[in-house]
Amino acid sequence: MFSLKVLTAVAAAFAAVSALPTEIETPVGSGCVITNIDQVSSVTSSCTNIVVSSLTVPAGKTLKLQLKTGTTLTFKGKTVFEATQWQGDLMEISGDKITVTGESGHVLDGQGAKYWDGKGDKGVKKPKFIRIKATGGSVFKGLHVLNCPKQCVSLNSCDHVTLDNWTVDVSAGDKNNLGHNTDGFDISSSTNLIISNSVVKNQDDCVAINKAQHVTISNLKCSGGHGLSLSVGMSKTSVSDNTVTDVAFKDCTVTNSDNGIHIKTHSDGGAGVIKNVSYKNIHLSGIRKYGVNIEQDYENGKPTGTPKNNIPITGLTISGVTGTMTGSNSKAVYILCASGGCSGWTWGVSITGSHKDNYCKNQPSNVKC
Ligand SMILES: *[C@@H]1O[C@H](CO)[C@@H](O)[C@H](O)[C@H]1NC(C)=O
Ligand SMILES: *[C@@H]1O[C@H](CO)[C@@H](O)[C@H](O)[C@H]1NC(C)=O
């Protein structure tokens, strides 16, 4: 944009430096651009301002971006992950106090259609797409994720991390029901997270939390999937692995999905707890199965109809949850608690248009069913 002559002149004019457009700071030409996977380790170990530019990641390789503390990384153009049947992940980003962004028009393309067989975790081997392990106030913003083979974004061992203004679009997987288990954001073993102002179009949970503390999810627009979920109790032995506390979902919409809100605990796991979780101002439309589904009866990944009290659900707030259902299988509220398994809830649900009657068992006495 600027000629060298102009740049030199501007740099010399000391007072004008602060007025320089930020493009000049991007490291194009400075050796901190990754255009080939072979450059990743040298660039990430020497640079703190990195551009990943129109990169094709070879099949069967993880784009592993282990960033130095304080690094800014920007995706530019198309980052395409070539396909082969393997476990993945396709990409892993880790670091402390890092900032990861995408330039307008960029995309991270997982080429899901090359794997989709309608069977998700089963069927042909498929890689998970993006794993994030970050800390220290790291920010991931404005990323555009396209066509995840299966689970899209896994947050693992994160602390003080914000994801803002993401688009996760797996809507192409709706065709012939081929996309499956394409969770938007999976959260495990993490604390102090914010996910905000983002869009998820997929075929499974929009957000699924397994183990976390202090998480705020706000202004999400979810469609096509299974809603805003907690799935807790998969560990046989570790109480802390089976614990979700202090989580707030607010100001979200869930449309054309199986569920609006789904909380399930695994009765074949060990002890644990779900405590102080809130869903506030959640608007539903076109929900096919359950508006709000809370059940303590999962075994081998399926509901059994027999709830257990190994993961009590206390201090749950479901308020300002409104909207509409669609189709002959629709039920606004389904609650299956074990005796003594659910207590201290705040309840404000108003969902219309369901075909079947609500069902509730062992719910706290203030919960209208
Ligand atoms: C969100 O991210 C996109 C890039 O994916 C960017 O073009 C847009 O300006 C961002 N919006 C906001 C409000 O930051
Ligand atoms: C409940 O969780 C919310 C959201 O993380 C948090 O702001 C609030 O302080 C928690 N309340 C208690 C009593 O811990």
Automatic annotation (TrEMBL):
- Chief subcellular location: secreted
Give its localization.
Secreted
Keywords carried by this UniProt record: Cell wall biogenesis/degradation, Disulfide bond, Glycoprotein, Glycosidase, Hydrolase, Repeat, Secreted, Signal
Could you give a single Gene Ontology term from the biological process aspect? cell wall organization
Cleavable signal peptide: 1-19
What GO molecular function annotation could you give as one example from this UniProt entry?
Answer: polygalacturonase activity
Catalytic activities: (1,4-alpha-D-galacturonosyl)n+m + H2O = (1,4-alpha-D-galacturonosyl)n + (1,4-alpha-D-galacturonosyl)m
Q: Which domain of life is it from?
A: Eukaryota
Q: What is this protein called?
A: endo-polygalacturonase
What family is this protein classified in? Belongs to the glycosyl hydrolase 28 family.
Q: Name one GO cellular component term.
A: extracellular region
E.C. no:
3.2.1.15
